[in-house]
Design brief:
Elements lengths: L5 E5 L2 H23 L2 E5 L5 H9 L11 E5 L1 E3 L9 H13 L15 H15 L12 E4 L24 E6 L4 E6 L1 H4 L4 E6 L5 H7 L20 E7 L13 E4 L1
Parallel strand pairs: 1-9, 1-10, 2-3, 2-5, 5-8, 8-9
Antiparallel strand pairs: 4-7, 6-7
Helix pairs in contact: 1-2, 2-3
The structure holds 6-phosphogluconic acid (6PG).
The site of 6-phosphogluconic acid has 15 residues, from loops.
Length: 256
Amino acid sequence: MTAPTQVRVFYRPEDLFEASAEELILTANAAVRTNGVFNVALSGGSTPKSLYALLASKPAGTIPWGETRFFFGDERHVPPDHRDSNYRMANEAMLSLVAVPKNVFRVPAEAKEATAAAEQYEHTLREAFRLEANQFPRFDLILLGLGPDGHTASLFPNTAALGEKSRLVVANWVEKFKTYRITLTLPVINNAAKILFLVSGKDKAPALSSIFTPTSDPNNFPAKWVMPTDGELLWFVTQDAAAELRTKGDASFQSE
Ligand code: 6PG
């Protein structure tokens, strides 16, 4: 059963990050109590860096790091030490400070061919979640960001990955960057128990408004395709990012 989308609007980015940290802590401890493990997919870009640093600063015992398994929602086609690497950003901000190395499952994006990296990461997921052939992993939490063009993970507008229905991970050609990105597919994302979008900045306001406009085309704003089949969808957004939100649709809105 899917709960209605929740949108929380924060006046200050620091309030958004604190609330996001609380949400992750709550989810992590609940997952470990229930299943003995917390499987989380980290998002890339720049917004989540403050969240990762905040999490790393929390007192020992707040987060069950030893039982947390870190995956990535997407990765650029670059080595792990490259300045554009999502792994490098998360590792510097958090993972190197708190994670047990064997619990970090990064995308092998140093592979010469992006398709090989995607295939290898799909295999990693199948092994880590002990999946049968036609099963999708169910993450306890997937963190996502939003690009000004409405992309999320590396699901960019009108790209091939949007139509993927069976693969877990694909290499997605992004024409505007003239490069491949490696990304979780929508069936994986929508199979999550909880999805948390972190959106900050006025440059995201038009895309956010389009995503919450019932008549907009999700292929032009791929984050709109994110609809968990049996899970919670949370949007934590700053006031400037929410400035153009006209329709509330069936989402429940809360201003902090
Ligand atoms: C990436 C991310 C991407 C990101 C958005 C927002 O690899 O860049 O996965 O989907 O979340 O582009 O990025 P910012 O948070 O930097 O605005």
